[in-house]
Structure formats: C-alpha cells, structure tokens
Design goal:
Helices cover 6% and strands 37% of the residues. The chain is mainly beta and 174 residues long.
C-alpha cells in the first residue's frame, strides 16, 4: 500500500509514499501492517509535501520514534481490499502467473509488475533465466486467467529480438 520514507518535523509525523490509485486513500483502509504483520499502524493524514503524504501514527510522539519507522513497508490484509473490477488486477495476483505465447508455447513466469509512468509492464523471467519486459496492455496481453494461473502474451513485432550489434570500426579506413 505504501512505505514510510522518513520523519517530518519534530512531533512524530512521517512522510509516506502511497502506492494506491488515490494516494490519500491509503488512510481510509484502516490500520496497515508492517511486512511481518507484527505492528499495526493507523495513519491520520496531516497534509502533503512535494508529492509525499504527511501522516501521524498513534503512539509515535517524536522525531526519533518516527525515524525508526523509515523504510517500513505498509501492507493491508487481502481480505480488506475490494474485489478488482472487470479487466482489473492486483499486481500481487499477476506475479507468478505462467506466461504463454498465443501458440501455447511457454514464455516464462511473471516475476514483477513495474509502473514507469507510461503504463504497467510485466517483467517475465524466461526459462533460460533472462528477463523481458512486456507492456501490460490488452493488445499485448489479451488473456489473463488468474484462476488458471496463466496469461497469454501476443508480443508486438521485434519485442524479443536482440538489438543489432554496433558496427565495429573499420581498421583499414583512415
């Protein structure tokens, strides 16, 4: 859901990078958990600074306590999330799916989902260990079967081709 990036001020407030579609919605889900589920953190939003949310956390009263939370990733139990709509997927549901080409041949497994600003991309680990990035669009990934554990990739021409080697300088030419 997000990550605490550091302290803000001296009264225990923290800076939070939210990964939700509406960044401020991170506080509306209720208490979040750390990676181990050992600590529950209820965020109360206090504002924004340079694209980061500023939040208060119950029980965190000073800068030193807030600094100790730096790097804490914030999670929410899956049961607390609404079901995705049609043609919507949680990134966690895509990771691990078997990626197949249209002809049924194996392409690899989805290892990660990245958002670089122009839309999501799937990082697929090929059977030989090499990684490829595939745009996660309806045209390139026309079939996603979460229950079946697979997705179909229809790569645009040239997506999996190696770039041409740079021309070597001609030693005879001077």
């Amino acid at each position: 859901m997000g990550v605490i990036t550091g302290a803000h001020g001296v009264r225990g407030e923290v800076r939070v990078k939210s990964f939700t579609a509406d960044p401020a919605a991170i506080a509306a889900y209720g208490p979040l958990e750390d990676e181990r589920g050992a600590r529950r953190l209820a965020l109360e939003l206090a504002g924004t600074v340079r694209g980061m949310l500023i939040a208060r956390i119950a029980g965190v009263a000073d800068r030193n306590e807030a600094e100790r939370l730096k790097g804490t990733r914030l999670y929410l139990p899956r049961a607390a999330l609404p079901p995705p709509g049609a043609e919507e997927y949680y990134h966690a549901d895509l990771i691990g799916l078997a990626a197949m080409l249209r002809d049924g041949s194996a392409l690899g497994r989805v290892r990660a989902v990245h958002e670089y600003g122009a839309g999501d991309s799937l990082e697929i680990e090929r059977p030989d260990g090499k990684l490829v990035l595939v745009p996660f669009t309806e045209a390139t990934v026309p079939v996603v079967d979460i229950e079946g554990g697979t997705l179909v990739v229809d790569p645009p021409e040239g997506l999996f081709e190696s770039p041409p080697a740079e021309a070597q300088p001609d030693e005879d030419a001077q």
